[in-house]
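We were asked to recover a plausible sequence for a given structure. The inputs and outputs are reproduced exactly as logged, with field labels preserved.

PROBLEM: sequence recovery
POSITIONS: 258
GIVEN STRUCTURE:
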């Protein structure tokens, strides 16, 4: 009688693919999406006696080209602008819609900019603070309390710095949106002057397309010369000689913003 022998085979669990490591920017965006943008900090300031609470924020700190733009917004406590959140989490079309509602219904709003030459002189941190301070000073009526995105300003008003403030405070989110819309508009205008750099698409940030243009053409006079990807490339000044004909006042970021 023949006996049958069953061969055993071990089943191997397929190995899981290694977890993908998120870039710092992707990890930050994932965190921001989990945060809720509310009037919590505004309500605390109102309860403490403040009447005109301004949110303050800037955009363009990491860009290689052009100015850093800041905005300050005093929201109307009696009107809720729905959908406010960090401008980085909104589609451009949605930002434009919200920017219109903010301008229409805010008690006050203002935008200010510090150009690339000034950024190179005092560094981007101090330039950001200067732009934010200028936006606050342009508010009419003036704010009596400031909510600032992760920074303290040289202002006389009482202020509260909030880490990830543009994702947590409705007022700071509103300022973020106005600043982003204004800076994007400026970048699109400069794109017509320097079409080889693709400014309308990347807004001056260090995308592969922008870095490739810097390697091929060198920086323009409006690139931030103190930023490594800019100073590491040669500067073909003769290619932009036409910029000098109008004088520096003709190309300042403040003039474009105003």
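RECOVERED SEQUENCE:
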């Amino acid at each position: 009688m023949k006996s049958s022998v069953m061969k055993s085979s071990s089943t191997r669990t397929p190995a899981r693919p290694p977890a993908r490591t998120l870039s710092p920017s992707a990890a930050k965006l994932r965190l921001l999406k989990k945060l809720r943008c509310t009037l919590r900090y505004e309500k605390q300031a109102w309860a403490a006696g403040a009447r005109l609470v301004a949110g303050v924020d800037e955009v363009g700190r990491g860009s290689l080209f052009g100015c850093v733009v800041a905005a300050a917004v005093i929201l109307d406590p009696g009107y809720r602008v729905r959908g406010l959140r960090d401008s980085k989490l909104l589609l451009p079309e949605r930002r434009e819609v919200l920017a219109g509602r903010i301008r229409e219904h805010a008690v006050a709003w203002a935008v200010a900019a510090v150009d690339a030459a000034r950024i190179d002189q005092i560094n981007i941190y101090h330039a950001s603070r200067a732009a934010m301070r200028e936006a606050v000073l342009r508010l009419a009526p003036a704010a009596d309390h400031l909510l600032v995105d992760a920074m303290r300003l040289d202002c006389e008003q009482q202020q509260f710095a909030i880490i990830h403030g543009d994702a947590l405070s409705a007022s700071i989110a509103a300022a973020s949106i106005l600043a982003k819309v204004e800076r994007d508009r400026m970048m699109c205008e400069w794109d017509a002057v320097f079409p080889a750099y693709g400014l309308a698409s990347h807004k001056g940030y260090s995308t592969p397309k922008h870095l490739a243009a810097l390697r091929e053409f060198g920086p323009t006079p409006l690139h931030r010369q103190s930023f490594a990807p800019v100073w590491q490339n040669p500067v073909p000044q003769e290619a932009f000689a036409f910029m000098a004909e109008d004088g520096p006042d003709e190309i300042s970021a403040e003039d474009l913003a105003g």
